[in-house]
Amino acid sequence: MTKTVFFALLASFALVTGCSAGDGEITVEAATTPPTDNPNDALFTVKVDDAPEEGYALDGLTVKALRDGKDALTVSCTTTDANSNAKLDKGDSLVCTEGATNVLGADAAGTEIEVELYAKVDDEEKLVGAATWTAAK
Q1: Residue 22: its pLDDT value, please?
Q2: Which of 26, 28, 65, 84 is 20 to 30 Å from 130 at the Cα level?
Q3: CA–CA distance, 102 with 35 (Å, rounded to integer)
């Protein structure tokens, strides 16, 4: 096998395996009410604008909020599976709240926060997409 053929095969393999995750696109819509110092605040809705045709398994989805200078926070989300195919794909959304523990206080109101959506792909957590969210004031 010549070096050229070997490198061509290697490059083809990398292209096929390299797009199993991180090839999604999301947008984030802020809730209309600002975060408070109490739990269960409505935070935002993650909308899946683009995803691979096979989608992502609903089991293993994680949404994280990252504030400057703070640890990443995992928020509680409920998935809306628009086409009822039991996969997260284009057109689906996740409505996210704080859950039973107050993870964002009133001091988060009006701040820009990075939101990241992760899915389990081949038993590993992979970044699907990220977007910036500005918490309501």
Answers
A1: 56
A2: 84
A3: 9
